[in-house]
Amino acid sequence: MSIRHYVLLATDGSISLPKDEILCTTNRENVYIFGFTGGLLDVDGVQIEENKYLDYTDPANWDTIFMKKGTATIPSPIIWGEVGDHIYITLINIGMEHLPDLKDFHTVHMHGAHVATQLDGFPESSFGVPMWEQKEGQPLEAPPKATYFFQPEDPGTLMYHCHVEASEHVQMGMYGALVIYPSMKSLAKNGITKCNRCGRWKLNGQEQYHIPKTATNRNFAYNNIHSYFDKEYVMLLSDIDSAWHESVSIPNNPNPFNAVDFKPDFWLINGRAFPDTLLPHPLSVGSDPNLTQINYESYVHVKTNEKFLLRMINMGYQVVPWHIHGWHFMVVGKDSNLSPFLVLAEDCKHINHKLTEMGFTNTIGSGETYDLIITADDKRGLYRNYIVNGQDGFPSLCEQLNEISKIDPTAIFDIPEEPVNCANPQLINYIEICNQPYGDPNNKFFPQFYPMHNHDDYKVTNNGKYPGGQLTMIQADAPDKPM
Ligand SMILES: [Cu+2]
């Protein structure tokens, strides 16, 4: 059990959204937003080096904290802990840089957390946190603040958001992911243990050879052996009506936006629209393992045969049919609750059925979360021969592509292999689907690339231009072991 103390600063800021499909495009739109900045201050009393400035008990930090006005982005920092942890979130309302007269309260509502009313962040039944103001010509005084507390009983994927005038403050961007891992204790209660001496994972005493010795309790989504994963990704989905944001940005607007006129024109994954979704996420910083455990990267990069977890969160106002190419996903949980099928799968091994809820499209309503696990199964067995050598009298697909490229070379698309940095576009590795830069002819098949996207395909646009919006890629490299 750990005591984890987060400090969130409520303020405004902006995000820059691409208006076309070109990677590293300079054709962009700035959208005014509200949000939380800040992050993890300390774990069990030990402060995180990068975030020491958040220690509001030290008056020497007040100026630095106050200066964070105007620096919010979408989404807000990830808050995470383990079952049984004591999670404290101190909220300081540092006010709006662009709208100094907007003295709205803010709160932290931990959506899906079973906290008491007093801690629920619904202001109408609890409280709001007023703005920290500096009196004319006076030094700063201690900020008004409140600390929320959450003791998670179950693992899973949740979210948090401000609940003050929620229609506006949520649309403006005051939200982030909240992730709870099982603890070693909660796993053990469900028969999952790790042998101290040999390092092997066991279920009810039976060794689980498919789970590597390097795995920790944070490689399980739930207290269930089937929820093991090698890598994990948060997919926090939201939508933006830029006209609404524009309207809020006008001080004392005589014609305030009517929420029922909501008509989004940008659709985001972790605060970004395609092709930005392929780039490294600007919020992924920090050398401390407490800061790097989980992040907002949206380009999924795995090895064939690995299992990856997608923590789907819908914070937008529209239902999202999330479609994943390449493989079926397994629903391991919904709204921080283990799928009942996985319980059955353990109890009823004799039943000749997968006993899992599988799919290739996951419909996610606003305020819902789903935990999806995908095994990046190897497709060489069925497909490599045809693609590389040809079969059943058909020439190889690569040969066919060669012919096509003689007629029109632009018909063979370049794929950006996990890009490195937008400021250095020359570092982006483009590859051709039949001309991979790997010497081993057996590996001619890799990497594999699969998109995943909102299947309301008009939401795969920016400003009406395809492709954009809620679209990203999964890259599966060659497996460790040869076939
Ligand atoms: Cu708010």
Characterise this structure:
- The protein has helices at residues 62-66, 166-172, 184-189, 242-249, 289-292, 340-347, 380-389, 397-407, and strands at 3-18, 28-43, 46-47, 76-82, 86-93, 109-111, 145-150, 156-161, 175-181, 192-194, 201-203, 206-207, 231-240, 266-269, 300-303, 307-314, 320-324, 329-334, 337-338, 357-359, 361-364, 369-375, 414-417, 429-432, 448-454, 471-477.
- The protein is mainly beta and 483 residues long.
- The model has no long low-confidence stretch (mean pLDDT 92).
- It is globular.
- It contains eight helices and 26 strands.
- The protein starts with a strand and ends in a 6-residue tail after the last strand.
- The protein has a domain at 3-181: Sandwich (Immunoglobulin-like), CATH 2.60.40.
- 40% of the residues are buried.
- Strands 13, 14, 16, 18, 19, 20 and 22 form a seven-stranded mixed β-sheet that branches.
- Bound molecules: copper (II) ion (CU).
- The site of copper (II) ion has 6 residues, from loops.
- GO terms for molecular function: copper ion binding; oxidoreductase activity.
- This is Copper oxidase.
- Keywords: Copper, Metal-binding, Oxidoreductase.
- It comes from Clostridium beijerinckii (Clostridium MP).
- InterPro entries: Cu-oxidase-like_N, Cu-oxidase_fam, Cupredoxin.
